[in-house]
Amino acid sequence: MEIERKKRIFLLRVLVAGAVVLIAAAWIFNLKSELRVAEKTINKDASEEAVDLRMDIDETIKSIEDKIGELKKTTIATITTDAISTTTQTVSASTTVISSSTDFVATSTEEKNSSCPEYINCMPSIGETRSCLIPKGCEGKTIIAY
């Protein structure tokens, strides 16, 4: 009786192990097919998104290039206009300088004889602090150096 009992227990264990193996195999085969379907769906969605993203990037780059072209045209026109106005100002300034050269000589001799310093040194230094105040009457003649 004990031998039959051991045979039954062994047979029961073999049947349970076989059932477990069959269930695991069925689960793995089903899982493989589910993963393949999911992979196809993901790849399809990803490729559509990649195409949409590429089209958006191309449109953005094209609009940026268009704006850069417009900016170049505007800049060239502005530079040309500025160059013409600068040339006109230079010509008018040179005629003013020529006409007022005698006034300049008289003014420059007055400035040299004045007691105003040419510049005031306001650089930070270690030790004594410096006064950065322009003396009265020297506002247009003295420069503050930092």
Structural features, described:
- It is a single chain.
- The protein is built from 2 helices and 2 strands.
- It has a two-stranded parallel ribbon.
- By secondary structure, it is mainly alpha-helical.
- The model is unreliable at 100-106 (pLDDT under 50).
- The termini are far apart.
- It has helices spanning 2-99, 101-113; strands at residues 119-121, 143-145.
In a few lines, what is going on in this structure?
By secondary structure, the protein is mostly helical. Helix content is 76%, strand content 4%.
Radius of gyration: 46 Å
Per DSSP, the total helix count is 2
- The SSE string, one letter per element, is HHEE
Number of strands: 2
The proportion of strand residues reads under 5%
What would you call the structural class? mainly alpha
pLDDT average, as an integer? 78
Fraction in helix: over 70%
Main sheet characteristics: 2 strands, parallel
Shape verdict = elongated
Strand order of the largest sheet: 1-2
What's the end-to-end separation, in Å?
112 Å
Q: Low-confidence stretches at least 5 residues in length (pLDDT < 50)?
A: 100-106
